[in-house]
UniProtKB/TrEMBL annotation, chains A, B:
Family annotation (SUPFAM superfamilies): 6-phosphogluconate dehydrogenase C-terminal domain-like (SSF48179), NAD(P)-binding Rossmann-fold domains (SSF51735)
Record domain Prephenate/arogenate dehydrogenase: where: 8-290
Key word Oxidoreductase present: yes
Keyword terms: Oxidoreductase
Organism: Micromonospora eburnea
Protein name: Prephenate dehydrogenase
Amino acid sequence: MGAANGQARAAVVGTGLIGGSVLLRLRDAGLDVAGWDPDPATRRHAAERGVVVPDALEDAVAGRDVVFLCGPLPTLPATLTRVAGVTDDGCVLTDVGSTKADVATAATAQGLGHRFVPGHPMAGADRAGLAAASPTLLDGAAWVLCPAPTGMAAFRRLAALLIDVFHAQVVPMSAPEHDTAAALASHVPHLLAGALAGAVQRAALRDAVLALAAGSFTDGTRVAGGPPARTANMLLGNRERALAELGAVRNVLDELAEALAAGDAGALTARLDEARAARAALGARSYTTHRCEFPAEVEHAGELAYLRELGAAGGHLTGCRVEAGAVAYTAHLPVGPPLG
Amino acid sequence: MGAANGQARAAVVGTGLIGGSVLLRLRDAGLDVAGWDPDPATRRHAAERGVVVPDALEDAVAGRDVVFLCGPLPTLPATLTRVAGVTDDGCVLTDVGSTKADVATAATAQGLGHRFVPGHPMAGADRAGLAAASPTLLDGAAWVLCPAPTGMAAFRRLAALLIDVFHAQVVPMSAPEHDTAAALASHVPHLLAGALAGAVQRAALRDAVLALAAGSFTDGTRVAGGPPARTANMLLGNRERALAELGAVRNVLDELAEALAAGDAGALTARLDEARAARAALGARSYTTHRCEFPAEVEHAGELAYLRELGAAGGHLTGCRVEAGAVAYTAHLPVGPPLG
């Protein structure tokens, strides 16, 4: 990506909510960046917002140092093949899809493991499309990257760019662990919101329920307002893990319902107290900071293991520099035992 | 309550989050108001905030025109008996509990149906206690009141006070219909939030899930941060209806899970679209306004039926005036068919 990120040449393929936000931020950061979208109206809209948008995908990505693939989840494998074919072997490729295992497997099967780094920025909005995109949407976001054994150099370059331009908190994880965590962090919550809002839509007292809607309902159904097809794609892309984690949530729901049915205030309060511990840990996290260095010129197995353990433990990176033959990470780990 | 609400003498028994907020608002509105709480430290705290707080409950409520009972749900029937015994028969009593059928039945059994008006303001906070109370917490809130056949005069007086002082949107409902609607609007969402947060607390990747927590998770678990005992009391107070409505939500969740397991994008999208309709109706309600008058001096069956139908249809009152032998309501009804 050149001597500094300011000189990297980037492209964004698929300029909806996330891709458009990536594009606008890269542009505002002074990078040479081009966008492309299969929809001609979206390309015109992007051009009106002052972005370089060639008519042909190939013209947008050729000669770039990094390409963000931001189209819908089902289109990713085909787009990856197409973009890989017209970019240099040194061009880093990444995506922003909500699940990572399938696309990581597809990339490895295509021999792209050394330059494709699966990614997932944890941000979104109820609205979709370029009209809802903003250069600040991803500012400071937790941004998962999935380093592969053969792709450490690509990981480092991309992590450095995301930290520099987006002030990202880069969360390094294995693709399967990401998908398991994302099931609980995002996919199951979408199913619960859909079930709650769907049941109200069918209720005889629907309008009274909406009139009484307290914060618990308004908050708990917010993501049910998102585009159904986008949510369906996200869920289908992580089907097995979403269903498995939904099973775990159902188990706790069964325990709550049993305690309630039995009128057992003690058991009910104990279950709710357990839930509160997770919520308290979410709101009140503090972190310890450390630095960790590895030799830059060899594929060091310890580096990959270190990164994956950091992410699985809830940690993230805010620094990634290659200097004097070493890569130095600035990392943050959550402190202490679960809050009670 | 005197010729105008400004001259009504009020009392609040139980000065936690809701009761304290009622107390502070009545005081700020210029009413003669006294508070009382069983906890001496809370009484001292209330006195420090400039409120009249006698040591004895009887001294707080004697001679008052209206008394708000704001203690924990399980204490309400006993407090109702005690307060009714030391107030005039013309003193209007109300509560702010999250379920209404049981307390309404208890009041009728005690011969208080003519002056006890079950109430439920739809507002709250994660925090509890007087320290979290605020005179603005209930400003403009939807505030359910449950008029009884023998209690129309008390209902009118209380509705007028709430509209005048709190700018409340008074939602008149029968107590059982309130409890059914509240189950979906509040109680089931608390169960879902508890199940989601509880499952994360038990997850092997707990800290990674919290690191990835997207808006769907943060929003969907917010009320799991509330006091477990308070939430348990709320759920236990509406046990049968909460479990019944949880069953309705589970049915939709089963349909979503089946569509997901089958990889049926069409069915999954259709269910999510149904959910989105309820969410869209929540965000984009518009109302038609009308006035309705009834004779004030007789118990008019049409008045009660009109009010209950208004609330069941998602409507509310923003005006209630008794003048020249008639009661005039200003009412608002949501417009149009379900949004698709």
